[in-house]
Amino acid sequence: MENKNKKMVGLGRGLGALLQDSDSVNASRQSNQRTSPYEAISSMNEIDVNLIEANPFQPRSRFDQEALQELADSIRVQGIIQPITVRQISKDKYQLISGERRLQASKSIGMANIPAYIRTANDQQMLEMALIENIQRENLNAIEIALSYQRLMHECSLKQEELGERVGKNRTTVNNYIRLLKLPPVIQAALRDNQISMGHARAIITIDSSEVQLKIFKKIIEEGWSVRKVEEEVRKLTLIPEPGAKERRTQTIKQEIRSLQFRLSSFFGAKVSIKSDENHKGEIKIPFTTQEELDRILETLKFEGKA
Fold first, then answer.
1. Residues classed as catalytic
2. Which domain holds residue 110?
3. Where is the ParB-like N-terminal domain (predicted)?
């Protein structure tokens, strides 16, 4: 039997830690000599594919059929290299935790059994394992990642910093993905379908008006604007044109303030307003509309107190 502490190949640090937690539960149960046939174990087993239910927490909504066929062809020749992971929900019934593509591909070529690790997991652990396992897949698109991050935060009660630790990303990266979900649906769909890049989306999201966002999006699609071109156009939108030829110093100050507002808005994921006079006296405002937005801003500032 395999060593229970052995790390599973291909799994990230966050998911590995969760699986080790499951091992600890199993070890505790075994020490109490509970040997019920419903007891979950951590060794690898061959399981009838027809006894495995789909994961109700599966975050992926789309599977590339061509890639799925390639995986099936590989399994036909090489077999299953990395076992799937399931939890046992009754004597002869299992529920998938991770490995949806491997299970689907195996069924498509008529495999009767599939190697699987059986784990102990409650519903929240199921969700967290499935989300993290999918986030770590290279072919997950930006919107799927953003939705997975959002679900981890809301349904697993994780803060951005805790989420970052789970998935191996810093807080700013996590925030940049979550902000994508504020874009108009048509832009989100284009990002999901690789019509625009993450760079395009990050530049567009700094614009307050959804109408203007859609106008720039149209230019990207119709004229093939690069990320740099979009960033330039967004910066122009943040500058207030001065009528006539007024003092250069005043104009320069306003341009610097607008540029700073653009950078701060991108950093905090919120509209930032700055007021300053010629003596460099003024104020910075970061408005918020919900407790969640306030918590995110305070977390970005690494503020230790409570609102």
1. 100
2. 13-122
3. 45-135
Token reading at 253 = 């100050």
State pLDDT tens for residues 64-98.
Answer: 788 889 999 999 998 988 899 888 888 889 988 88
Beta partners for residue 46, in sequence order: 115
Residue 111 has pLDDT above 90, yes or no: yes
DSSP bridge pairs for 44: 117
Token pair, residue 268, equals: 């905090």
Q: Which two tokens stand for residue 75?
A: 């399994």
On the CB side of 33, CA atoms within 13 Å amount to 0
Tokens (6 digits) for 82: 């990395």
Residues above pLDDT 90, as percent of the chain:
22
- Answer with the one of 104, 122, 140 that is the final residue of a domain: 122
Whole-prediction pTM value? 0.49
Name the DSSP class of 40.
-
Count up the domains in the chain and report the number: 2
Give the 3-state secondary structure of residue 213: helix
